[in-house]
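Entry:
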Amino acid sequence: MADPSVKAFRPQLRMLTRGPSASSEDLETSYRQSVRDVSQTTHLVGIADTDAGLSTDLSRLYVDHRLRCLDDAGIAIATTGDTISVDRLLSLGPRAVIAGAPGSGKSTLLDYIALRTAETSPERHEVRQLLPIPINLADVAHSRGPTSSSTAFIDIIRRRIGSRFGEQSASLVHQSLTAGRALLLLDGLDEVPSGPARSDIMAAIESTASDYPSIGIIVTSRPTSSTSLHGFQLFSIEPWSDEQIHQFSVRWSQAYHERLAASVPAESVAEDFYRLVQSSPELRSMARNPLLLTIITVLHRSGMRLPDGRVSVYGFAADYMIGQWEQNAGNASALVAPDAAEQARQVLSDLALQMSMRSQQSMRLDEAYRVVSDSPRDYSSPTPTSFLDSLIEWACLISADSAMQLAFTHLVFQEYFAARSIASMPDSDAMRFARDHFFDPYLEEPVRLALGLMRAHGRGDLARDIVEELLRGS
């Protein structure tokens, strides 16, 4: 399997080669290239024909999103109800919050904007002067010290940029802010735990916008009651149209066929898949979500029966990746028991629920080892830790970074496996859990998915009772 750390360390190596006497212009050129290195590749995991999945250039696969203005906030970017393109947003010095459902492409959208604004070719001149500064807000929230002031917030951002792109790049943050050329790309406001932590982050964003009135700031979030920021326009990501679904089908097929030198013409495969999606109201509805469409596309290319609901799509994708893990890890002699796949589902469910209960998207690897080791299960590997190591190496569902932090490859997989834990609880425990945690931002979606799993596995009465209980308490 390809080592993701190679890509992760490339920006630091690039910045180090500039030397301590690099000019400011050289430093910015190098930084822009580093941002492109990080942002330009999109990786589709779990494809059977390759060991590491399919990697392709984001600019080739990307389908432009339409953004609908939900609140104009008195700013002349758009008026309520208008839809605009990403390029239109960038051309107007944005102060925007972009809200989108799970899998709607929020993080990919910011990757594309980072790639777009880091570009230095002449045809990109209208946005060239913006300096993209991509930041994950959950990482900021987990940093030590206060974050509510713009000074503290910018200091954390400088440290995060220095860690990610090389220490010399940290100086560019202050330079671009004072020059009014910075474009802060702040991903995942909803992933910051609700309460004081999120309030502090929101206050810091508003304070930074006030202190640096000329810079651009784009924030992404799932829709929540605390999405609004003073002085920012609120946009939603529009579901994909039939035309966008078709564009993605063609571009994905072309990337897949070029990567694998397939014999069947990419256009023919794309048209067949598009007709299949259009023939089913359920598939057509799910295909309007970019992540669900990507999963459906991979499952179809792998010859699997296409599922008929969101929770089923996640389940099919997870089972498919676990099947690939069984095959690859088995060939590597890491597994010795026939029930390894079910053990993997249970381990991932335990880890997912623990992370979601903590309002986190990552866990220290040593903590994850303890969660697995404390389980009473007998694992199909010599030790529980080696079982988890094989999942990290082969399953494409979880990964560990250079800081020894374990995380699911996408939040929806964490939510799906947390939902499996909830759905497997005894009736009274499941009822109590749903009642106590449904309004927790990190557990609302797992509870919703758990209700779907209950209905799919003969516990529809329990799901109905839980819904009625939640309605009474709301």
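The chain has three domains: 65-237, 240-306, 310-474.
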